[in-house]
Amino acid sequence: MGTFNLNNLFSRFNFRAEISAVHPVDDEGRLTSSYVFDDPEKVRIRTYKGRLVKGKDPGAQQTVARRIREMDLDILAVQEVEDIDTLRFFVAQHLGGAYPHLSLIEGNDPRLIDVAVLSKFPFGAVTSWQHAVHPDLPGERVFSRDLLEVHILDPRDPDRQLLTVFNNHLKSQFVDPATDPEEGKRLNDERRTRQTDTIVRIVAERTRPDGRYIVLGDMNDTPDAPTLARLGEPTPQSSLTEALAHPEETRAPKPDDPPPPASGSWTHRFKETGQPADYELFDQIWLSRSLVARHRSSHIDRRTRHGGDGSDHDPAWVVLDL
User: 16 vs 37, 39, 40, 56, 111, CA distance in Å?
Assistant: First the structure.
């Protein structure tokens, strides 16, 4: 199973409109009529910070879909998807319906980017933790998007749970240009730390010490960052190990100066003008103690362009023998 930030998988539609009646169709079910939306009270254009939200470029969608097909995973956690209908359309049109089991719950992000899970195995319980709070700020939701908990069932025995998936998309590194950069970074790091604290607490409450569970997703920081420190701290209730320290790459990385990390342990590239590029492992897969023994290999699908292929993140996955 793996994780992939799909980079703004928005639909083709950028407005909501109210239709009082549907025009009739012909005998073959074809719609030949037109609708005109000229009442501003009944039309709402979807924008974010004054900019029109547009559908993801069809070519980029095809590229992302090709990468998913080539990985051929049983379970894929994704980030930055607009809604469940967009995900269903994408899977049907671009993945040939390869993933019959989908879960996406609308989260907290004002840009409408949500986390989701695609699976060839059936689901049991699905839980959204978007309402969770941190003790430091009990009146504010801690997750910028959501923490999505999905129970994966054995397709041969629906009464048997194989493992639990906790899909994340933590606070971005982005700082608004109108904000003091140091203060903006401090606030982002502070929120990411609280999110990590909350993940650890929830996972400990929802799992057994010998349970099979995975914490993964776009963490927007490196595994050794102070903001994520608690993920790697063993406790009596939980123990997590990051599984992408030395992954196999699908191809050699594109040359750069200085070159990307020799370990191949990176999924995100960021370059400021006039500065060397930063290569960081933002997309991570943390395995519970019982799954570490069942971990067979780790992989990252390497991009062919510095800017990325359909996404500014490279997908990562692990092979587990269950």
Answer: 10, 12, 11, 18, 15
In a domain, 133, yes or no: yes
Q: Domain with 146 in it: what CATH number? A: 3.60.10.10
- Sign, Cα dihedral of 27, 30, 36, 37: positive
| DSSP state at residue 230 | G
- Asked whether residue 120 carries a pLDDT value surpassing 80, the answer given is yes
* Cβ atoms within 10 Å, residue 155: 14
The C-alpha atoms of residue 222 and residue 26 are separated, in whole angstroms, by 57
Q: Maximum CA pair distance of the chain?
A: 67
Residue-wise pLDDT for 224-254, tens only, equals 999 999 999 988 877 899 999 999 999 999 9
Kindly tell me if the per-residue pLDDT of 61 is higher than 90.
yes
- Is residue 149 included in any domain, yes or no? yes
Concatenating the DSSP letter of every residue in 115-148 gives EEEEESSPEEEEEE-TT-EETTEEEEES-SS-EE
Q: What are phi and psi of 274, to 5 degrees?
A: 80, 5
Q: What DSSP character marks residue 188?
A: H
pLDDT for 62-85, tens place per residue?
999 999 999 999 999 999 999 999
Q: What is the CA radius of gyration of the chain?
A: 21
Adjacent-strand bridge partners of 297: 319
